[in-house]
Hints:
By secondary structure, this protein is an all-alpha fold. It is 56% helix and 0% strand.
Amino acid sequence: MAKSSNLYVRIEPDVKEQAEKVFDGLGISMSNAVGLFLKQVVINQAIPFELKLAPVKIKSVDTLTEVEFNAEIEKGYTDSLAGKGRPVKEVFSDIRKG
């Protein structure tokens, strides 16, 4: 057996519990999962997934001022003219998925 080294990590109890359930379902231990993660870091020379901020919550129209509302409409119109956006069918499909 290869030498091993101890790693101590502080994590929120509920996150640990939820992760353990996932790993149990996959048939691997928390230790093996952390080892897999670290091996991927070495192989990729980077964190093996995209890091990004959580999406901004969409404001309800009821909470916008008239100026904010007009700015949102203008932004949508400008994006539309620039070809930014998604097909309506795709948007509604995502809405149905939740």
